[in-house]
Amino acid sequence: MKKKKTGNVLVGIMYFLVSVFGGILLGLSISHAPLMLEPIGVMIAFYLFCIISASLAQIIIHEGGHLIFGLLSGYRFSSFRIGSVALVKTSAGMRLKRFSVSGTAGQCLMLPPEGGWENMKVFAYNMGGAFMNIITACIFFLLSEHTEGLLSDWFGAAGTMGFIYAAMNGIPVRGEMLSNDGANMLCLIKEPRLKKSFWVQLTVNGMLSEGTRLSEMPSEWFLPPEGYGTSEPMVSSLIVLGLQRLMDQGLYEKAIDGMKNVLGSESLQGLYANILRVDLVTAQLLTSGKDADISILKDRQMKKFLSSGSRSPSVTRLLYCVALLAEGDGKKAQSLKKKFERIAAQYPYQGELYSERAMMERALKLFQEG
How far, in whole angstroms, is CA 267 from its chain's centroid? Predict the structure, then answer.
């Protein structure tokens, strides 16, 4: 626990220094606005416009960098998301969908190169986003030097945000909730055996978007490499998928035992822990009904996660099960079911939705049986 707290402090210090440097650089870059814009409210509005629009531009550039360098490394397109809007390759072709992942502003996921995980290149794909941020930051600063007025200020802001995003994603950081690109790359370079875990994650993601369920995938994919545990985020993700596969198979008791064991690890990152807590409470409700222990839902961190995931199928499924099996409120459950279907209509991973609906149908059956 002490090591984890020390790591979080160091991460905070690094982000603080990056923010301070970025603020100074931004102040130097936006030099025309104070001379050209009055009153001060208009100038502040322009500053905010520069920061927000330049940030959005660099997020798109960052994810585009993953896409470009991934394609150059033999990876194949799977999905490209900015905010909650995603272009996803499904069994029916390319589709626009809506979903988000806590702690991320965007994401470019690709299918791994053909030929297996052993010779899979990981450096360019993982670091492509930061590379592209740096390349475009330099271009924007050059444009800022060769233009005038407010346009020059915007180019300067875009260059500054490019360096900030490159630093925040490229400098290896294993955060409390998730690891960044640099940390993932460093992990895969230092521990080549973990490339199999990375291969599985990308392959599973692609198959889920095409409608394949976890229970239909080979069981050996979800076995963590010998000698590795939740201290490695790459392995944590694999373990979580394996436990979700047990849920999809209807092996709830076995899943409960596994989730309790994993959640007892202090090294498990926050996002994975919260995902497992959602599934644990669901599994307990589906096996114990009103006797299930749902006290974890009152935890402050869990409340925050449930709030941020209000448009997540798994969170809505959990609340549906709670309404039926813990509260006995059929009317509330019916409202949540309608919400689930609205979310599902825009959700890209059909394979997950089959599993979610199976759990909700089981909950409804248990409720009707009294």
Answer: 18
Which 3 state secondary structure label does DSSP give 160? helix
Which domain range does residue 267 map to?
193-369
* Furthest-apart CA atoms within the chain: distance in Å: 74
- pTM across the whole model: 0.87
Q: Which of 129, 156, 186 is the last residue of a domain?
A: 186
Whole-angstrom distance, CA of residue 16 vs CA of residue 24: 12
Residue pair 141/134 in contact (Cβ under 8 Å)? The answer is no
Higher pLDDT residue, 101 or 74?
74
Residue with tokens 């190169």: 113
Residue 310 backbone phi and psi in degrees, to 5: -60, -20
Average pLDDT over residues 17-39: 56
- Is residue 17 located within the same domain as residue 139? yes
CA pair distance 98, 188, nearest whole angstrom: 30
Distance, in Å, from the CA atom of 268 to the CA atom of 235, rounded to the nearest integer, reads 10
Dihedral Cα 49, 55, 57, 60, nearest 10 deg: -150
For residue 115, what is the DSSP state? S
Q: Which residue is it, tokens 């490159």?
A: 166
Domain-ending residue, one of 186, 217, 246: 186
Instruction: Give the position of tokens 């969170």.
Output: 315
The whole-angstrom separation of Cα 90 and Cα 78 is 8
In this predicted model, what pLDDT tens digit does every residue of 137-164 receive, in sequence order?
Answer: 999 999 988 888 778 888 988 998 999 8
C-alpha to C-alpha distance for 326 and 292, rounded to whole angstroms: 8
